[in-house]
Amino acid sequence: MSTKQGRLGWLFASPYLIYAVVFFLIPLVWSLFLSFTDWNLIAPTFSFVGLENYMEAFKSPGVQSAFFVSFKFMALFVPLVVASSIIVALIVQGLPKFKGLFLIGFFLPYLASGVVSSFIVKGILSYNSPVNEFLRGSLGLDINWLGSPFAALFVVAMIIAWKFTGYYALILTSGFESISKEVYEASMIDGVTPWQRFWKITFPLLYPALFTVLILSIGVTFGIFTEVYQLTGGGPNFATNTWQMEIFTRAFSNLQAGYASAIAIIASVVTFISILIIRKLLEMWGKRNGWS
């Protein structure tokens, strides 16, 4: 590559590089620096406290709950959103016309504001809402949707799954489109049933797209904030207290910016290690079955 071509490449890459430095690298270094201080977000001065923030964070009930809540969300959200995305992709794939139009319709929730959708859900699940009136009057069920630990987790997982289903279905639809029609035609000649065709042909050939969806959905569970903040505030009893909720509470409610920075660093490390381990397991699963 000539010097001129190299400079041209750097020129085209410079907007993204500048963006990454300004909005990722500098905040990361600043957060790492603050994690060793006791800055309260207001005072012009602060003191260095070494590893005190980290030691306190490891003993904090809020941080411990954030760690476990992330994996609880993962256990609910990932199967739910992957299953719904596959169903939507299969429905769209079976349409004779206007596939793109239907995909756009399913994609719209992804563009919707998390604040607005949370307020709508909060109204739907309020005590005197038509839904709860019907459940109490017709089925004798009195469910405290946002006051029960499991119900609150499930509601938040449902909202986020509704939001991301269309986006992931778009990825899976691309995976479906990449599968050769000749493979299906050969299977029909051999008398393969639709169920066998899905598990023996479609699912293995869909693995690359499915792998992408799984990794993306797992990453989402470590960044949940808006829906939890609007609906439960991390409650009841830390049942929905995510990493982002704990960081927000410590930094802006308790004015412990240094301590919140330490939690953010810990959350980043946990997120990176968790995704790395799960990714390796998924790759091993794919290689063992000959899908990758």
Labels describing this entry:
globular; mainly alpha
Summarize, please:
With 292 residues, this protein is mostly helical.
Low-confidence stretches: none
Percent helix: over 70%
Structural class: mainly alpha
Q: Strand-residue fraction? A: under 5%
- Work out the radius of gyration: 23 Å
Query: What is the overall shape?
Result: globular
Give the total of beta strands. 0
Tell me what you see in this structure.
It is a single chain. Helix content is 75%, strand content 0%. Helix 3 packs parallel to helix 7. The mean pLDDT is 89. It has 292 residues and is an all-alpha fold. 27% of the residues are buried. The two termini are 33 Å apart.
Write the layout of secondary structure elements.
Layout: H1 3-34, H2 52-59, H3 61-93, H4 99-111, H5 114-124, H6 130-139, H7 149-177, H8 181-189, H9 194-205, H10 207-220, H11 226-231, H12 243-253, H13 257-288
Helix pairs in contact: 1-13, 2-13, 3-4, 3-7, 3-10, 3-12, 4-7, 7-10, 10-13, 12-13
